[in-house]
Amino acid sequence: MPHLKLTPTQKQMLYALGKFYEALNQPLVEKPLQLRTSKKKFIEVLLNSGIFAKKERAVYLNLETLEKKKNCLSYESHLIKMTEKGLLELQKIEKETQKLIALKNSFLNKKPLKKDLQTIIK
Prior knowledge:
- This protein is mainly alpha-helical.
- It has a single domain, classed as Arc Repressor Mutant, subunit A, CATH 1.10.10.10.
- It has four helices and two strands, in the order αααββα.
- The protein has helices at about 10-25, 40-50, 55-70, 85-110; strands at about 75, 80.
- α1 (about 10-25) crosses α3 and α1 (about 10-25) packs across α4 (about 85-110).
- The longest helix has 26 residues, at about 85-110.
- The radius of gyration is 19 Å and the shape is elongated.
């Protein structure tokens, strides 16, 4: 099966699912329990977040693509589960995100030399 690149929206959805499950399961780290959600409930969470400007049908289709074409998600008793490939993609996304956050923080924490800046009037 050829490698199919994830779109930015699909990456956001995979990242959102990973972080949603991380937050959901954080209190259960010491217990042999794991919480999961249905596709319908996860779509509601995404739409209520205000981050995704997509309509419900578009979110559904993106999740379906992540399942059927990208092999990143699977369903067990109607509950969303990440596949091994999905977990690997999530790790790549998290690594990429950490680099961007580190870059942002480096700009915020370091004062540029005044001789390197040029002032302009808007």
